[in-house]
């Protein structure tokens, strides 16, 4: 599958329908930098995956306008064509008041859904006021979609835990719309999900979609178990369908991916000289092996666990001091949420302690970068690492693991990957670890440091084949093909 074939498939499948993608995050943010209007590509898995698809297929993307200069570039309907340097699709920016953002985003999305769905022992919060604001925000997104659809038929593709009710509100007004929802993060089992006071309402809202996609078979099965234990619905496990209130919703797994060719091409264009320059910039000697990590600074990603493992390694193996550097890119995220502030401080403390204890001369064991990095620059960091360390405590997929593999088009490198990341199902030639065991992380680094070139090459070439074959265009194609297989009685007009 490639961009062109995906475009053809989408045209053939959705026909004259307007393709509308709805997510909280926008792919491009407009901000003032030193008084000038500048564009920034947003960090985050959803945006990385969807932008190439929208670029290939065109259509409309509705999202929250998060930048302080967003209003400078949009038309009277809140729309602007993107990407800014070669526009291919329209971005419609939705404005929300600060009070709604606080309830819908900080309160429900980040403090209820995120910890409820990621089983990492952070307690979810349930505030009735925030819950009302969450639904209000979903209505605002739905109204933005309806204002664009007007009399046209549409294929509305909503994303993630911010948008549980958007399709429902659209379909209440335009029932013939095709509604597909993709859930990017894990879906918990019923014993966890049922602590949510609005469990029933959430499931009912989502079941207004015609198709719901999850990252793995396990998350799809968890969803069906939750429905089974919460609603009076009929579940057909063989056809993987839920029948509720005279409607059928298909439940499927579609492991998300990346634009392999693009990452591989960008990485191929980065010279040895540029890597050396980047190393020099961070005070790393040219021939020093680098263990790299790239994550949002999120408590689900296991960054403290990586640091604890590095500390143990340096303490138990003094001979490894000055023999490698751990570079962690930790892009800022959700800074308004208390749990993230505490987590950020803990991570910085650990970095300081390790560097204080083990630095020798110009060598520092940990280089910690807590800034947003431009897309191509980020691939440079992945290319700089001989070993990539991914320790998510729970992760829907984890695109960085696939990006590291795509970036290895020269020296093969070793991927260390958590068994709790969705991508472990495909990247079977990674060194698999349980990130709750500092011992396992430490031993995996030791193993990676001494792995033979032949073994590295064999493992990496299998993983590259896998990611190349199952790229993000194939992901979208499989989802769209499932839409086309929906029973005609699900939609009168389809
Ligand atoms: C969610 C789910 C699922 C990171 N820092 C910067 C930056 N990034 C990019 C990475 C990668 C993306 O953000 C992160 O994707 P992940 O998949 O690793 O993680 P989440 O953001 O948690 O994504 C996840 C994903 O959605 C897709 O469905 O895989 O399970 O949690 O592409 O490279 N990009 C730039 N600067 C940074 O500083 N430009």
Structural notes for this entry:
The chain is an alpha/beta fold and about 500 residues long. The protein has two domains: about 5-255 and about 475-490, Glycogen Phosphorylase B (Rossmann fold, 3-Layer(aba) Sandwich); about 270-470, Rossmann fold (3-Layer(aba) Sandwich), CATH 3.40.50.2000. It has 18 helices and 18 strands. It has helices at about 5-15, 45-55, 70-75, 100-115, 130-150, 165-175, 190-195, 200-205, 215-230, 260-270, 270-280, 305-315, 340-360, 375-385, 400-405, 440-450, 455-470, 470-485, and strands at about 20, 30-35, 35-40, 60-65, 80, 90-95, 155-160, 180, 210-215, 235, 240-245, 245-255, 290-295, 325-330, 365-370, 385-390, 415-420, 430-435. The strands form three sheets. Strands 5-6-4-1-7-8-9-12-11-10 form a ten-stranded mixed sheet, sandwiched between helices. Strands 15-14-13-16-17-18 form a six-stranded parallel sheet, with helices on both faces. The chain has a two-stranded antiparallel ribbon with strand order 2-3. β14 (about 325-330), α13 (about 340-360) and β15 (about 365-370) form a beta-alpha-beta unit. α1 (about 5-15) crosses α2 (about 45-55). The longest helix has 22 residues, at about 130-150. The chain is globular and about 70 Å long. The two termini are about 25 Å apart. The relative contact order is 0.11. GDP-alpha-D-glucose binds near residues 43, 185, 329, 397 and 399. GDP-alpha-D-glucose binds next to α2, β13, β14, α14 and α15.
